[in-house]
Amino acid sequence: MAWNEPGGNNNDPWKNRGGKEQGPPDLDDVFKNLFGKFGKSGGNGGGSGKSLGGIGAGILVGLLVVIWFISGFYTIREAERGVVLRFGEYHEQVEPGLRWAPTFIDSVIPVDVQSIRDQSSSGSMLTEDENVVSVQMEMQFRVVDPYRWTFAVESPEQSLSQSLDSAIRYVVGHSKMDDVLTDGREVTRQRVWEELQAIIEPYNMGVSIIDMNFRDARPPEQVKDAFDDAIAAQEDEQRFIREAEAYAREIEPRARGQVNRMNEEAQAYKERVTLEAQGEVARFEELLPQYERAPQVTRERIYLETMEEVLGNTSKIMVDSKGGNNMMYLPLDKIMERQQSTSSDRSRNTLEGLQAPVTDASGRSRNSSPTTGLRGDSYREGR
Q1: How is the protein disposed in the membrane (predicted)?
Q2: 139 and 158 belong to one structural domain
Q3: Which pTM does this prediction carry?
């Protein structure tokens, strides 16, 4: 049973010692008693006490040396470079890997040289035409020289921020409000980049500007609606321009094709007319000897051939000049067209079904074919 359990005997080892109530011993008293014993043993032992003290001091020094040596190991990551300072002064630059530096003598500052860092700036600025705009831009940069980044300026990131803010205000102050808010944003971005490069170049800070982003540019709230309308109108203008260019790209090849087709047709017509003319010349050259041998026969044959060609392309009309004063005209081409239409109507009626008979006032059946009736009437009238 433990000495301090409830209901047990009070066997506290720090009480009732020497007949007195006392608490735990003070640590200072313990160490004094311990060192006192070592001192007495050293005085009594002579040379053996001195040797024990020397061994203990040597072990202590050895332990301290081991701890000091182990504490000097450090690691530089792949994306970093180490800047080594010896007694606070630049000593060297180390590559990635496991390294060792004497503690309390050298100190190492790791610098990331691969990551792309961001730095932004924003604020309300006055333009050249005395208008206020709110501009926000962001810079992306990377450290290329760890030594210059560490020692060129006291606070490199703060210096970059101030340089970016100064470049933005300078460029916006020398630009018009419409250029900053509308179609001149890209020019403004490029000018800010160039101005920032010119500002930080004398300091040689060991950084490289990767990109410059134009995040936002807004007019004052009082005129924001009007500027939104202006921006929308400019966007419509650009859209119309793109549509017109697309139409031009579409219609131009078609027009070129038509031009080429017309050129080819003209060339073909030229060749056809030339060949026809050459054929006519050849025909007349062949006809000339025949005409010289028999002029009358050749003239009549040419006349008949010409009339045959002319009459072959005109309507034919039969005229009956006999049998009285009445003259009946029978246009044969119209009659042929009616016969063809009648044949097509009969075929359609046959496919549709029964054809209803047609009777006259006397009850006699008549032929429903208009062509047949026309032919019969025409024949009777002609006779």
Answers
A1: Single-pass membrane protein
A2: yes
A3: 0.46
